[in-house]
């Protein structure tokens, strides 16, 4: 098992400092986590990348893990997150890279690939389709994306209404969602469950 903390560097982008896992010497693979995760999400994939002679890079994105957490909502706009991720890569002198994003990280990854295609060798987007081309919205997709509505309209909807939405869309998975959201709001960015290498 890789020691994530031991291989984590603190990289400054503008006035902000971000923790970035950085290990390996081959072609760079940038791993962008989702909500409510951190760079630790990738702890099961990183050993396989290192064994295959890749350089694994996994930052905590703005608002997650040990990364800065601006209070203003505007601070979390995709252009800001993209600028920070690309700034991290510039500081680490990484030009071209393979890009893997999960959930919120996949959203950011799609935009990086669209706006900086000369830097992205290949893109792997997990759980989020191409923006603007996700096909027909299904009940299943809505049930898996409830938290996107939370962020978009949180100031206009009561907690009771959100709990009802969770129950309607998620059923039994509601317990895990509530645990993750509660832990996130309390400042604990450790996921209840994570992706594993198959």
Structural notes for this entry:
Helix content is 35%, strand content 19%. With 198 residues, the protein is an alpha/beta fold. The chain has a single domain, classed as Alpha/Beta hydrolase fold, catalytic domain (Rossmann fold, 3-Layer(aba) Sandwich), CATH 3.40.50. Helix 2 crosses helix 3 (104-115). The radius of gyration is 17 Å and the shape is globular. It starts with 7 loop residues before the first strand and ends in a 13-residue tail after the last helix.
Describe the structure concisely.
By secondary structure, the protein is α/β, with parallel strands linked by helices.
Average pLDDT reading: 81
Q: Considering DSSP H and I runs of 4 or more, what fraction of the residues is helical? A: 25-40%
Spatial gap, N to C terminus: 16 Å
Strand content: 15-25%
Which class best fits the helix and strand makeup?
A: alpha/beta
Number of domains: 1
CATH homologous group name: Alpha/Beta hydrolase fold, catalytic domain
